[in-house]
């Protein structure tokens, strides 16, 4: 699946943010010098009232402006380029033509009285003749019995020992120790997925992490390798995808496959590049969702489940190009091939799933780009049924590209700017507040008790004269 990359440039600091910071500093300064300003502006009550109103309007405008920026919940993207010190294992899915993966012995056992089947010679030219018999089985039987399993497809499979088994003296361990091989099938391919991390294993990441600092270590040996029996290979493709999502093929956008030429070569050396994307959940604009909390492994996984349910409910079958695995249930067969090419139906299914699921992406996803380094040619190649083909994946020596989304404005920044603006306004208008307070106290006292008010007023005047005298003495007066 090709994602659209948008590079959007925005100001490092908005005007409102700048004004908020300036306001905070200015407010502090005005607060420290308020007594001096009081002496200067004591006789300018009308001017101070007008300035107070003008500053109030500016303060409100500024708070509204900065609030709009904060509550848009925009994000900024940091691009981090780094060499891996710990290699995260991806999932590898290897697919072969289903005709070459058919278990002919099982079909003959399943149809013991079919003389036509018994007379078909099991060679490369006749492989396609077994497909109609395979299609007569339910998908579950095709997957589990009608085709070969991983134990026959792979001769061996090894991976550099992960963190979880550092105590082992061996450098490589069997792939099955990391996770069981997941098998899947559609009308054309039988596939095998290695290192698939399901929801119940999300806390056990050390099984999928290999300590290897690619900047300083020797990288000329495999991270993992797969040895496949050539007699089961035809149209051999290999996919890489995030280990936290299942293999769903073209339905989920997993189209970045590489075709491996196993006939003239005994071994292919490959490597890959990693792109790591982290988004933010609602209310931020990225609107990502952690599908693991919903018991799904990814958005792609949920889409494939939705499409499978639609076909099962409406056509009592399975779409030919969708991959069936043991996580599905029911005795299903393939639907008519015309449905697979019906673009109108495809649009209906997509609309139904979009309404049910939505378009919220995964909060964390990883994408891979494979590249072939070299091939090792066979010596005296023949159609030997015991021949083996190796796919060796070397360490990802290129820099890992991480796109990390973070809030454009944190709550602490927002509150700091609001506090700075408010502090500036209060600092500039403290004299006006004092005059207003005196006016209110004066009128309240007159209403309550005129005699008591005159006594209080005399006390205030006396305190003011004493304070003024002390202030003069402090400043060096006589």
TrEMBL record:
It is a multi-pass membrane protein. Gene3D superfamilies: YojJ-like. The keyword DNA repair does not apply. GO terms for molecular function: sodium channel activity. It is found in: Membrane. Its main location: membrane. The chain crosses the membrane at residues 18-38, 45-64, 414-434. GO terms for cellular component: membrane. Keywords: Ion channel, Ion transport, Membrane, Sodium, Sodium channel, Sodium transport, Transmembrane, Transmembrane helix, Transport. Belongs to the amiloride-sensitive sodium channel (TC 1.A.6) family. This is Uncharacterized protein.
């Amino acid at each position: 699946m090709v994602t659209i990359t948008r590079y959007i440039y925005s100001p490092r600091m908005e005007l409102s943010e700048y004004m908020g910071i300036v306001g905070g500093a200015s407010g502090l300064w005005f607060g420290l010098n308020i007594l001096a300003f009081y002496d200067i502006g004591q006789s300018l009550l009308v001017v101070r009232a007008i300035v107070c109103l003008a500053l109030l309007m500016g303060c409100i405008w500024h708070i509204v402006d900065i609030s709009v920026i904060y509550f848009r919940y925009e994000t900024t993207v940091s691009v981090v380029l780094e060499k891996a010190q710990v290699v995260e294992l991806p999932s590898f899915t290897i697919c072969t033509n289903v005709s070459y993966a058919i278990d002919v012995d099982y079909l003959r056992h399943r149809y013991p009285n079919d003389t036509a089947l018994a007379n078909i010679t099991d060679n490369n030219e006749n492989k396609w003749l077994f497909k109609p018999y395979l299609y007569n089985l339910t998908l579950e039987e095709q997957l589990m019995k009608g085709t070969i399993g991983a134990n026959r497809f792979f001769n061996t499979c090894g991976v550099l020992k992960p963190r979880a088994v550092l105590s082992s003296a061996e450098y490589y361990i069997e792939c099955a120790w990391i996770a069981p091989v997941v098998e899947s099938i559609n009308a054309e391919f039988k596939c095998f997925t290695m290192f698939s991390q399901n929801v119940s294993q999300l806390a056990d990441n050390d099984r999928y992490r290999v300590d290897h600092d690619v900047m300083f270590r020797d990288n000329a040996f495999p991270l993992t390798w797969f040895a496949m029996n050539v007699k089961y290979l035809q149209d051999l493709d290999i996919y890489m995808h995030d280990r936290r999502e299942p293999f769903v093929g073209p339905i989920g956008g997993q189209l970045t496959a590489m075709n491996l030429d196993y006939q003239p070569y005994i071994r292919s050396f490959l490597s890959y590049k990693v792109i790591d994307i982290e988004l933010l959940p609602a209310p931020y604009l990225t609107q990502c969702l952690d599908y693991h909390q919903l018991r799904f492994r990814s958005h792609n996984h949920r889409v494939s489940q939705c499409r499978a349910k639609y076909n099962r409910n409406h056509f009592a079958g399975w779409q030919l190009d969708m991959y069936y695995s043991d996580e599905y249930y029911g005795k299903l067969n393939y639907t008519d091939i015309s449905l697979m090419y019906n673009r109108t139906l495809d649009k209906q299914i997509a609309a139904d799933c979009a309404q049910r699921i939505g378009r919220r992406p995964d909060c964390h996803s990883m994408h891979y780009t494979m590249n072939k380094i070299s091939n090792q040619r066979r010596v005296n190649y023949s159609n030997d049924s015991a021949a083996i083909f190796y796919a060796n994946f070397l360490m990802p020596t290129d820099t890992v590209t991480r796109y990390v989304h973070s809030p454009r404005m944190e709550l602490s920044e927002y509150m700091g700017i609001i506090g700075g603006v408010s502090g500036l306004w209060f600092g500039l208008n403290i004299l006006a507040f004092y005059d207003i307070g005196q006016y209110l106290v004066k009128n309240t006292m007159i209403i309550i008790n005129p005699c008591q008010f005159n006594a209080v007023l005399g006390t205030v005047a006396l305190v003011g004269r004493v304070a003024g005298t002390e202030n003069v003495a402090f400043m060096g007066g006589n």
